[in-house]
Each structure stands twice: as structure tokens, then as C-alpha cells.
Amino acid sequence: MAKVTEQKKGTSESVATEASTKLLAVVLVRGLVKVSQPVKDTLALLNLNRKNHCVVIKGNPVNLGMIKKVKDYITWGEIDEKTYQQLVEKRGEEYQSRLTDRKEKYNYNTLEVAGKKYKPYFRLNPPQKGFGRKGIKVAFKAGGALGYRAEKINDLIIRML
């Protein structure tokens, strides 16, 4: 049997291990014009089809890999319970269609909160006072909008409600 060892290489690995148990809020910041097809496909898998759409996903390695691939178009961070409840309360759209197809081979993706089923994405307004001083093409660390925000994603989501 092969022995698996974990190697930590800087801050990206520590962010990945911390986020694996938390819920991540992901917001599409830039539009999809002139975007390569693999990036469009990954955004479609994340249910991010339009600008200012938000999804809440688990921080598992598969989702973190998809986030890494589309990092130049999104912003993300750990969402707290209070902000998540406000997001569902104000922007959650109740899912009213059927849950499976006619032959019951495919189950449609829904989000279940407190016994109600919601669409798996949230349509948000543009943020009050903008994304950042340097715009939507610059990383968050440099004063822009893109990339990992950690806990500051909660402030952004509240401004977008």
C-alpha cells in the first residue's frame, strides 16, 4: 500500500484546510463575454451564470479546485450563519417545479433550508459603494474585487442584499 503524506506549501494549503469544514459564498463579479470554454463550463457547474449571482457551497477539495480555476472572475470567502440566514430570507427564491424528471433518473438541484426548497443560487444587486477602489479586474489584496476575501465576504453580501 502506498503511504499518503500531506505537504503544506504556503498559505493556499492552510486556506484550503480551514475552509474544508465551512460553507463558502461565491459571487460572480465579472461577465462571461470573451471567456474560454473550460472556464464557462466550470462556472456553469457552480451555478454562476450571470454577473452578481451568488452560490453557497461546501469547502471540499472538489469545490476548491473549481474555485481555483475560475478565480479571475469570482470573489469568495467563508459565510457566517447570520449572513446566510439573511441571504436566504431576502434573496432565496422558492423552488416550485418538480424534483425529478419524468422517468425519475435525474434529480434537480435544490437548496433545502428549514424544510423549504430554494433555487441553488441567489440573484443579488450590485454592491452599494462598489466592489473596491481599483475595480473588478484587480485582486482583493490589491484593493480590487477578485479572489479570496475570508470573513469580509459577509460585508459584501450584506451590501448586495
Number of strand elements? 7
**Which residue ranges are poorly predicted, with pLDDT under 50 across at least 5 consecutive positions?**
1-10
CATH hierarchy: architecture: 2-Layer Sandwich
Strand order of the largest sheet: 6-2-1-3-7
Name the overall outline: globular
Q: What is the C-alpha radius of gyration, as a whole number of Å?
A: 17 Å
Multimerization state: single chain
CATH topology: Ribosomal Protein L30, Chain: A
DSSP strand (E) fraction? 15-25%
State the secondary-structure class: alpha+beta
Mean pLDDT: 85
Provide tags for this entry.
Ribosomal Protein L30, Chain: A; 29% helix; five-stranded mixed β-sheet; alpha+beta
Report on this model:
It is a single chain. It is built from five helices and seven strands; from the N terminus they run αβαβαβαββββα. It has 161 residues and is of the alpha+beta class. A hairpin with a 2-residue loop joins strand 4 and strand 5. The protein is globular, with a radius of gyration of 17 Å. The chain starts with 10 loop residues before the first helix and ends with a helix. The N terminus is likely disordered.
Short précis:
With 161 residues, the chain is α+β, with helices and mostly antiparallel strands. The chain contains five helices and seven strands, in the order αβαβαβαββββα.
